[in-house]
Amino acid sequence: MIGSVLVANRGEIARRIFRTCRELGVATVAVFSDADADAPFVHEADAAVRLPGAAPADTYLRADLVIAAARAAGADAVHPGYGFLSENAEFAQAVLDAGLAWIGPPPSAIAAMGVKTRAKELMAAAGVPVLSVAGEPTHEDLPLLVKAAAGGGGRGMRVVRELVQLDTELATARQEALAAFGSDEVFVEPYVETGRHVEVQLLADVHGTVWAVGERDCSIQRRHQKVVEEAPAPLLPDETRTRLHEAARAAARAIGYVGAGTAEFLLAPDGRFFFLEMNTRLQVEHPVTECVTGLDLVALQLLVAEGGALPSDEPPAPQGHAIEVRLYAEDPARDWQPQTGTVTLLDIPGVSAEFAAPRAGERAGLRLDAGVGSGSEVGVHYDSMLAKVIAWAPTRAEAARRLAGALAKARVHGLTTNRDLLVRVLRHPEFLAGQVDTAFLTRHPGEGAADKDAVALAALAAALGDAAANRTPIAGGWRNVPAHPQVKRYAHEGVEHEVRYRLTRDGLHAEAYPDVALVSAAPERVVLAVDGVRRTFGLARYGAALVHVDSPLGAVALTALPRFPEPERETAAGSLLAPMPGTVVRVEAAVGDVVTAGQPLLWLEAMKMQHRITAPTDGVVTELRATVGQQVDTGALLAVIGESVNSVDREEQEGTSQP
């Protein structure tokens, strides 16, 4: 019997596993990097062991250090969570060789599915349909998808639409895969533009029982990473559902699978489906399956690892519907750039419990699986996911409405997040109609943009709240002289917003919004009547400049700008600045090179992804300050693109032709 579990992971999945262990009376052990020393999961464990360093390669990917930590803390079992070493067959075998219980599938099953090229061969032999490219790719095979053979989660994955791009994308994918999974092997397959990503949750015991615990639709993605997941899959014909479950069970039996795992499929518009991969561990999106079945998949993992039998021949049938969204520290309007900094506040009202599956009699509810809390730091070393928010209800429409409402009222301060995008997706007519596929966010790129009116009204509310906070008995901020308006300046996502208003006996006069009236103003709450409709704006200030404004129109983070700004250091035209902190992993430019706008010059690695930095304009590289291995901060000067000789000559020629 397992008495103490070391979780070889971090963040929300470590906390999720600890929750079940506490309920079962099992002791818990955390391992943590220096960057995670004060993270919530470390404090929640019964014991914690430091892994010196911050980079994954020095910490969570060090099998020897993790096993040594388990021995030092007296753990008798290891749960790998997801990511890191969770699908590493050598690690699983090393755990067993150390005399510890492995809460996962047999190393042989991990090895069989660990290299996707080999996995496809096994699945084809088992009669499971697969996608493949015969021989060298040609124009007829386009578009193509480059994928990491040893991993997933969007890392080491690139879409190729022109054959001339293939070598570059292969090199990028190899570097990204090596950093994330320790293997640079990649492969190429056809890219189905508008397919659906549907997966089947599997659970198998050592006694021969294999459960297909329903399916999930994970089609809404960005950068090939899932953003919204739900169970059951909407608009899926029963005949297709049955065939998917049968194919998933066949995949599990073909490799002697034991434990929890997921068979992932691509469902084409014509109804055909193809095996993508098998994740030989617990999925990020497992909560939606728990919410519609009432199962605790982690508890069942422990049961199976102890040699126990699943409680019945068939799993419970799904009841109702569940939807999960991933809350990321990222900026959708800026090509999903990951964000770093402090989570000053994380508050999602209405969440009944963290990590809990529905209890008997519960028909609807909200669940939060969070890796961070108020005050947590988000750094550059790990994935930018902050939390998963899950809603379940008797119907899909009710679940979507409940989840969108909770997110709309959530307060997530300190970092730019994808919160508002998630709300818009959940309320989008196509999503509500079940019309989802992997191109959803490509078809609707505006879903990531902040509403301009919402930002302007937030700036007005922030200015009025600031005036209320600074009000003195001598009417500070409130004037009888109408000729001189109050002026406040804020920055939002790099754009300056100037607020000009007057407060007179007749009320508010806002120059940009003549139809907005002030109902009340306090430092933490401003109520405006917008075209006759009252809107409440909640205000939270952090330090001297940062203001978070929460309202039904959306969440807006503003930076107050000084009234009389100091002259800023001049930045040369054509300067290429780092959009985020990270490590320079590749440089493909040199001083003197002639480049075109959009041409990739270098790559930054941050949060386990590589980000392409491109030339901002046509010209010639006059300065190059980035070197491979260099750590850079946001705003660091990487290169300068000056005018090329040809462009100068052309301008001079054009100038002489003018009358």
From TrEMBL:
Q: Does the keyword Mitochondrion apply?
A: no
UniProt catalytic activity: N(6)-biotinyl-L-lysyl-[protein] + hydrogencarbonate + ATP = N(6)-carboxybiotinyl-L-lysyl-[protein] + ADP + phosphate + H(+)
The identity of this protein, by name, is: Acety-l/propionyl-CoA carboxylase subunit alpha
Q: Which GO terms describe its molecular function?
A: ATP binding; biotin carboxylase activity; metal ion binding
Please give the SUPFAM superfamilies that the UniProt record associates with this protein: Glutathione synthetase ATP-binding domain-like (SSF56059), PreATP-grasp domain (SSF52440), Rudiment single hybrid motif (SSF51246), Single hybrid motif (SSF51230)
Q: What keywords are assigned to this protein?
A: ATP-binding, Biotin, Ligase, Nucleotide-binding
Gene3D superfamilies named in the record: 2.40.50.100, ATP-grasp fold, B domain (3.30.470.20)
